[in-house]
Amino acid sequence: MDFNSDSLPEDSDWDLKFESVRYDDSGEYFCVAFNNYTLPQTRTSLTAILSVVGPPQILEAPSSQNVIQKMSMKLVCRVEGHPIPVVSWYHNDMKLSATSRIFLRNSNQEFWVTNVNKADEGEYRCETWNKYGNRSAVATVHVAVPPVILLPIGHVIAEENSTKILNCQVYGDPHPLVFWAKDGVPLLTINSRLKVLDTGLKIINISHADEGNYTCTAVNDAGNQSTTGVLSIEAPAKTQVSHRAPKMDGPHFVKYPVDTVSQIGEPVTFSCDTDDDPKPHIYWTFNNTVSFPPTVNISKDGRKLYIKSMSWKEIGKYMCFAENLQAVRNKTAHLYLRESATTHKPEKKSRNKSLNKGGNEA
């Protein structure tokens, strides 16, 4: 700049201007003036602090993903803003907080879930706000369930020329593909005597050539599971005169689950039992799956399903299945939430347990 001229620079020539201010423009600023005509030749101004304020900005939004059951998942919601924004997470519109499986890190900008189950599936929303505004971002999580063998093949004994079904009921999400093998050799050709059903492998007009070890393998994107059983042929039984008609019907329930209404925090018990001898195989499903919330406990014999302290995750449909050689039968019950002044702490909690129609404690 030529100071020998008669004119001085306009005031605007000394200004520092920002065309579009950003959060990273925040900081300390000072100016330095210098020339060759004075001593000292430079002068430094006082420091000015620039603070950029405004609504939050989402730098990295959570991404939709597929997670295998019992694995861990991570969602990220990177934000910036001034004042520093608050971050919250929602699952299917229900606000989340830290638990034994849920971890919030880096000022809630990282959301972790361990031991993922089917109940964790759905829409996740990250919300961030400060006094100047708010932003949100959404991601969808699908939980893939590896195949589960609901009913193994076991040891099947059949008469020659009879028809039998080798059980192989499976569950998985996505629905598994089922493959069969006999004595380790894949059954690639299904003929008129062999039919693959949803419940197993049907063999018509059984002969001694059909004896052997059968393996059912269920496969989907989340994994695979197999079960192996034996088919044996026996000679036709001799006809015997009996004054007592054989029992040929399916399982007969003497206790079964019924619709139950309960409050958050209360215990719930469903019972399921039969008077058959031998006892049938008993198993349960929850909302048409074999994936249960971690708070649901089932006895080893399958005759009791117990929830120590009911929460939102246990609300739904419960089915008890009883299966013997004659048939598979089931009973269905729904667990509902009783409306109250607060869903976290019931007003009254009875010490006396009552038995409902099916013999269950509510």
How would you describe this structure to a colleague?
By secondary structure, the chain is an all-beta fold. The chain folds into 3 domains: 57-145, Immunoglobulins (Immunoglobulin-like), CATH 2.60.40.10; 152-233, Sandwich (Immunoglobulin-like); 253-337, Immunoglobulin-like (Sandwich), CATH 2.60.40. Helix content is 0%, strand content 47%. It is built from no helices and 32 strands. The strands form 10 sheets. Strands 6, 9, 10, 13, 14 and 17 form a 6-stranded mixed β-sheet that branches. Strands 15-23-22-18-19 form a 5-stranded mixed β-sheet, with no helix packed on it. The protein has a 4-stranded mixed β-sheet with strand order 25-32-31-28, with no helix packed on it. The radius of gyration is 34 Å and the shape is elongated. Mean pLDDT is 83; it is low at 1-8, 241-247 and 341-362.
List keywords for this structure.
elongated; repeat; Immunoglobulin-like; disordered C terminus; 5-stranded mixed β-sheet; disulfide bond; disordered N terminus; Neural/epithelial_adhesion; 3 domains
